[in-house]
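Q: Structure tokens for this one, please.
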Amino acid sequence: MKAGLEVHQQLATGKLFCKCPSDLTETVQGEFVRLLHATGGETGEMDRAAKVQSAKKISYRYQVTPNSCLVEADEEPPIRLNPEALSVALTMAELMGAHAPREAIVMRKIVVDGSNTAGFQRTVVVAMDGSLTVGGKVHHIATICLEEDAARKIGENEGEIVYRLDRLGIPLIEIATAPDIENGKEAREVAEAIGMLLRSTRKVKRGIGTIREDLNVSIPGGARVEIKGVQELAMIEDYLDNEVRRQKLLLERAEQIRARGPDPPPSPVNLAPVLSKSPSKIIAQGLRPGGALLGLKLPGFAGLLGSKEKDGERLGREFADYARAAGVQGILHSDELPGYGLTEEHVREIYSALSADVARDGFVIVASASRDRATAALTAVRERALLAAKGLPEETRDPLPDGRTRYSRPLPGRNRMYPETDLPSCPIDMKTMEEVRSKLPERPEATVARLRALGLSSEVTQHLVRAGDVAAFDLLVLHGLAAGLVARVLTQELPSLEREAQRPLFDGPESLPDILLPILRNLEQGAFAKEGLLPVLRGVLVEGLDIAAAIQKAGLTGLTLEDLERIVTEVLDQNSTLVSQKKMGALGPLMGDVMAKVRGKRDGKEVSQTLERLLRQRVASSP
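A: Here is the predicted structure, written as tokens:
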């Protein structure tokens, strides 16, 4: 296997070509609709991916937000490249030993899937030819780029996709490796190392969707496939391993198809007369007025479309993905029939209508309420069937939650690029580079060593560095809080609450002291015990309460030392028989009874010391 990574990380610097803030919002102030069509790039030729997308004739509805302007609407020229974003990209170039050109030239990349209102994405090459050592192996960094993030997809209706403009224009730093990764584990480790370097700049956004990876992979005899938009680091191995299995299967199928010497698939056939009385709900879609029920004979494909394994890769799934991309919900193929409401008699009639040989040929069926979509779907399946005998097509695939992928569109090529006509180039002179070098951040390995010197465990230290929480840690410790307490909050309590709330609880590390510092000060001053920290944090950060209200709601108020001694004495009185029998050996069982009454109201260590002191007095005074 050969694989390369493209890591895309949002920067917390404001948008790339305007002065709008880069926060997401649910506030919508208006909307407009656009139709996009593909054009030729700098070579004059039209990109194949853009051509396929444009042929779908989809309209795009854009929701205007408070943090979008006429630049995002493509009604006003962009302003010059965000200098802070450029500085972050140049910082990464220095950390990776990459070489910056004398000027950064903005390019347009044709994208007509609606994610950009203009029909193109602006991108800038900032540096080239760097390297990163991971696990003793040197990995080459091909390019470091800055580009605009796409609009946020909100929903999809029949023939229309809805996008929100709040995300459009947020700076993305794109770091692309050479194809020198040899397995899934290595890919995950490289992505993790790049992520830690990015977070060391303290200028990146955090949370779901702020960092994502594109995986480029091929095997001998296969084709380059791009798995686009992987968001979970732990899933990288699964996606690459499954892609290798998929390509191996398709290469095997190609050999089998070539050995049978099949003819090209003929034109589709109308199957409505044959299946008009079928009870199948799938078939019924094609029998509606304006719909179509079409079948396509696949000469030589008998037995090659399905899989013996329930969740295994199969050629039929490849055909179905191409049909879905053309606008239908799916297909039926011969290797999965009878089924889905079609009987053996129906299957025999289909073979007869298609003039197909049961022993040698396969077929696919498309049923759609739209004749145009049914025709487009079978055209896509026919083209994919022709490629099946040759091997694998180059394509872009979307990641699925189970570790598999799904066909999205053809792999784009160089024909989609051309220079930006609205912006001048941005000089990268010696003064700029000297300023960048004077402010280089602490490298992750140095950060790990520094935190370990504070007495933090290796596990906690790695968590802080990988999660990008070192800046928040440093700010809180600088205010005099104990390193262990701060580390616990950042590595345990906050991640737990963010999972519970299903959203980031902070905009960035700079906002942490103002919110966390008063809570932790109350803890250190004895307003509540460490055991009550999580419910207090939940009350303030998730439920929006002030600190006093959060402490009161958690039931952590009003327990003085005298109250603690009174509760301990009551527990000793209630368990006098146990005390007389076990003496000091009763400490463990009694501790559970006391904590049930005071948990979170006083520190656990203080409770234990108080119980031990009063128990010892009770034992000493007993006969």
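A few notes: The mean pLDDT is 90. The chain has four domains: 2-256, 262-388, 444-553, 561-621.
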